[in-house]
Structure formats: C-alpha cells, structure tokens
Specification:
Blueprint: E1 3-11, H1 23-26, E2 43-51, E3 55-56, H2 73-82, E4 91-95, H3 103-111, E5 116-120, H4 126-143, E6 148-152, E7 169-171, E8 176-180, E9 191-193, E10 208-211, E11 216-224, E12 227-234, E13 236-238, E14 244-248, E15 251-253, H5 264-275, E16 280-283, H6 289-302, E17 308-313, H7 316-320, H8 322-328, E18 331-335, H9 336-342, H10 348-361, E19 366-369, H11 384-395, E20 400-403, H12 405-408, H13 413-433, H14 449-468, E21 472-476, H15 481-488, E22 495-499, H16 502-507, E23 514-518, H17 525-539, E24 547-555, E25 558-566
Parallel strand pairs: 1-2, 2-25, 3-25, 4-5, 4-20, 5-6, 6-16, 8-9, 16-17, 17-18, 18-19, 19-20, 21-22, 21-24, 22-23
Antiparallel strand pairs: 7-13, 8-12, 10-11, 10-14, 11-12, 14-15, 24-25
C-alpha cells in the first residue's frame, strides 16, 4: 500500500478589522486529523490547511458573463439590513393551498422568507399543482428569488375523502354517522366516505374511531358489510381528507401494515414531480428504508436532476426503524400531528429531540412540522405557547420549520410566516449570545480517506470560524456535500455555498445556515475566490476588514481551508 498525504499549515501576518478582536490573539490552535488507512489501492490525497490572514486585495472584474452572481434577492436584502451575523439560519417551509396560490400571494411569501414551497398531493388536481409550480419558477427567474419546490405524496392510508360539503362539517354529540366505502357524488347527511375498501377489516363493535388525530371521536355501534355505523362521543369539525385511526382498549389498532408505502396514485404523482422538475419529494407513512431506496433508485433512472427524497416520520413503525430511515433518505420531516395519533402526546417533545439529534449525527436536514402556529389559521396572532414551541425547535437546531394549514388555508399566512422568521431569528441570536453551541458528539460519516478528510476539514473549519470570529464561511462545492458538513456543525457565521450546479443549489435551500449561490466555477480555486469575492463586493455587502473562511471541494484531490481578510 502506498499513501501520499501532506498536511501544511500557513500562518502569516494579521490584517483583521479592529471591530473583531485581534485575530492574531485568537488563533488558539488548528485542529486537523485523519484516521488510519486500510486499503490495498494506491491513493493520492492532498489536503491543505492554509490560514492566510494577510490583507487580500481583489482585482476588479469587468461586467462580462463571468460577472454574474446568483445571490437571491431576499438573502441580499437581509445581508444589507442585518449584516452577516444577523442572517437567519433556520429555513422556512410553507404549504401552498387555496389561501396563497395566486402569483401575488406567492411573491409575498417568497419576499417574507419562504425557502421551500410544499405542495400536498392529497389535495387539489395535478393541473392546480402544475400552475403553482410554474408560478414559483416564474418568480425565481423574473424576480430573483430562490424558492425550492417540494411535493408531498399522499401515501397508503385509511383516509377520509371529500364528504361533499363545501367546507368543514360539525359532528354533534351522540349524532349517528355512516362511514362507508360507497362512491357517490355530492354530499349525504351524516355520511363520510373512506378511500380504502378494507378500512373496516378487523374492527369490532365498541372500537373507537378517531378523526384527524382527535378533532372528533366516534364509537363503532354496528358493522354493515364494509361500512361502519358510529356514534359521536367527542364532537368536533370533520375536515375534508382528514385521517382516520382506530383504538381498542387504549391502544392503536394497526391498519396500515398491509398497504404499500407508495400507492399507485403516489407513483403517478412522482412522475408528475419529475416532469415538473421539483427539488424534493416527501414520502408519507414510511415504514422502513426499503421504500426510500426503491424511490431513489427509480429517480436516478428517470430524472436527469438530483431530486431529494425526504421521509416523513409519522408512525410508530417509522420510529422503530428511525436510524435506517434517516440514513437512506436525504432528509426527514417530523410530522407531529400524525405521530401524535400513534404515540402518547407527552412523548412528542422527547421524540422530536431524538429525531433531530439522529438527523444531525447522520448529516440529514430535519423539518419540524405540524401545528406550529395552528391558532393563526383563524387569528392574526399566535398563542404564547406556540411561540415557545417554535423557539424550542430552533433551540434544538432543527434545519427548518414548516407551516401547514396556517399558510394553505389560513386567514393570516403571511403573518404566520413573519412570526416564524422573527421567533427563529431571536432564538438564534440568544443561542449565540449565550454561547449555547450544541456540542456534536462526532459520529464518523465517511468511509474512504477523502471523505474522512472532508469531514475533519469541515469540523475544524467551524471550530476555527467560531474561535476567530470570522464574518462568513465561503464554501465552493459541486454537489453540496461540504456545505452540508459545515452546516452539520452549526457555526456562528453564515455559510455561503457557491456552486455551478443548480440542482445542488436548490437542495441546499433546506440546510441550516446555508445560503446557496449559483455562479460559474473553474478548477482554479484562487480564481474562484477572487471572482466571487469581487462579485459580492460589487453588491456592496462585503466591506474592508471583513474576514472570511474559505473551504473547497471543487477538486477531490485537493481540499483546503483558508482565512482571508478583505481590503
């Protein structure tokens, strides 16, 4: 075995800005290590740790085609207003529905900080979804936004279909209802359709039917073929396409185990997502890693771009296979509403913490979803408990927060998004001021030597950035891997990820603290640095004396860290 490995450290003169404490006194040490190597193949790896703290004077570029910088207008505005450390790091996902599907409403959400638009394939037609997707892409192209698109599959589940009424229907105490698989047009009094022929199999008289996680409850009083006659025991609103679950003696009756994770309708929706060039597909009711692996293999064959596959954790079975699901997926959504139907309510907070920690260990972005600001569906301000819930998710370093009904059908979707933005920014500031950097117990991700080196470089880069108090971290990346490794370590400084791959740019929209920027890159790293710093200076958001830490994985054989100050 022959391994050539060089590690070089350059420490030069200091030229930091006076507002940051003397950088020369803050270089308390540089960490860099790589584990042992066991391989029969020859491998040449060059890793450089270059701390270049001398003043960097950038030559001016002309306004040629190379002089274009794909920095979205929202990030640019936030940077101008708040500076580097004031940039929000938690990403925001909005579910698009009838309350916010016009071009004007979508632009308002994008301007207010929406990073990802979620389309729930349970609702509306594919034509409706296509129209929304094209409006979002139009805004990105013409207005300079960078909003990614996610479709959320319906999944195989026992679920209520449209009861025919124009809106919600009230179930009164002790009223008698028929739950049926019969198909009919319009509405019938006290009748609700279920979309699965075998939905009543194994259900007995006396079982409890829970509607939409507890919005209303019924007792089964009679079985009539495949249908159930039920008496309302807890009155409430019956919304279209809400989920049904059955309980017996205080325990959930498992009904979904015999259903495939990806239904026939889901496959058609996935084909639709591919044709519309979406960025993420979220899978509902994932039981284990198999369906994720199947879908990712299918996408690699059918799609010319890299589409991220997210797994929704919303069942007891998914919790039992949590780690394998996280490893197989490209990200996780904590669907607390459905999850709360299957596990005791008091366990939801600790399960959320566990899922968030596992995702961070395995370097997968995690979205905390469901009922974050539920009261804002009807009211213009949230409850104080809801704000505390949002802030706790931010304190746990979740990558993203998601609005569901608040934006899709709510009266105050734009205000709900503003609440998420303000609450997350405030908690991020508090975390930083209180030095509550969440220590990450290092779980080695890489297997090959280059991957392990990249992992170590990013861990060290974040430690250096925090110790030196640099203004920003610049990462130059082809596919976003090093940007995700930097994000995993949750640095104080914002991460600007430069890539020439638009698919990678849109997927990095989900990663904590990462601002993805589309720009032409070359194999010459110094040329890339000079060009991008000059372009950012031309935007007026990079000032004399600013210090940036530079990381790159543009060439696999050469990975580096540099610290530069601007003049």
């Amino acid at each position: 075995m022959a391994v050539a490995f060089n590690s070089r450290v350059f420490m030069r003169g200091i030229a930091g800005k006076s507002s940051s404490a003397d950088l020369g006194n803050r270089v308390s040490g540089v960490c860099f290590s790589a584990g042992g190597v066991s391989s029969g193949a020859k491998l040449r790896v060059r890793a450089t740790l270059q701390v270049d703290l001398e003043a960097l004077e950038i030559p001016r570029l002309d306004d040629s085609a190379d002089g274009r910088l794909g920095l979205d207008v929202v990030s640019e505005g936030e940077l101008r207003e708040k500076g580097f450390l004031g940039m929000r790091k938690t990403k925001l996902v909005c579910t698009i529905g009838p309350a916010c599907c016009s071009l004007e409403d979508l632009e308002k959400l994008a301007s207010s900080g929406m990073n990802i638009a979620r389309l729930n394939m349970c609702h509306n037609t594919r034509e409706w979804h296509r129209d929304v997707i094209r409006k979002i892409k139009k805004l990105n192209e013409e207005k300079g936004f960078c909003v990614s698109v996610m479709i959320d599959t319906e999944g195989s589940q026992i679920q209520v279909v449209d009861h025919g009424a124009p809106s919600s229907v009230k179930a009164e105490d002790e009223s008698i209802w028929l739950f049926t698989t019969q198909k009919f047009e319009g509405s019938r009094p006290f009748t609700v359709q279920a979309n699965y022929e075998g939905f009543s199999e194994g259900i007995t008289v006396g079982d409890e039917l829970v509607f939409d996680g507890g919005m209303a409850s019924f007792e089964v009083i009679e079985k009539i073929g495949n249908d159930l006659r039920c008496k309302c025991t807890d009155p409430g609103l019956l919304l279209p396409r809400a989920k049904l679950s059955f309980w017996r003696d205080g325990k959930l009756v498992e009904k979904n185990s015999e259903l495939p994770t990806i239904s026939t309708k889901d496959w058609a929706d996935i084909e639709f997502g591919i044709s519309e060039d979406v960025d993420f597909i979220a899978m509902s009711f994932v039981k284990d890693a198999n369906a994720i692996i199947q879908l990712k293999s299918y996408l690699s064959d059918k799609s010319s771009k890299s589409i991220g596959v997210l797994a929704k954790i919303e069942s007891l079975e998914s919790l039992q296979h949590l780690e394998e699901i996280v490893e197989a997926s490209d990200g996780i959504m904590v669907a607390r509403g459905d999850l709360g139907v299957e596990i005791p309510l008091e366990q939801i907070p600790t399960v959320q913490v566990e899922i968030t920690q596992v995702c961070r260990q395995l370097n997968r972005p995690v979205i905390v979803a469901s009922q974050l600001l539920e009261s804002m569906v009807e009211y213009p301000i949230p409850t104080r408990a809801e704000v505390a819930d949002v802030s706790e998710a931010v304190r746990q370093y979740a990558d993203a927060l998601m609005l569901s009904g608040e934006s899709a059908i709510g009266l105050y979707g734009d205000k709900a998004l503003s609440v998420l933005q303000m609450a997350s920014s405030r908690m991020e500031l508090w975390n930083r001021e209180e030095n509550r950097q969440s220590a990450l117990h290092q779980h080695q991700l890489g297997v090959s030597l280059p991957d392990r080196i990249a992992e170590q470089i990013c861990s060290c880069a974040v430690e250096m950035a925090n110790n030196l108090g640099v203004d920003a971290i610049f990462v130059y990346t082809k596919h976003g891997q090093m940007a995700s490794l930097l994000s995993r370590n949750r640095p104080n400084s914002p991460i600007f990820a430069f890539t020439d791959n638009n698919s990678a740019r849109m997927r990095m929209n989900l990663q904590w603290g990462v601002t993805p920027i589309l720009v032409e890159l070359s194999e010459d790293m110094e040329a890339n640095i000079i060009k991008t710093i000059d372009l950012i200076k031309m935007k007026g958001v990079l000032e004399e004396g600013d210090a940036v830490l530079v990381v790159s994985d543009i060439t696999k054989a050469f990975q580096s860290i540099q610290v530069k100050t601007i003049v």
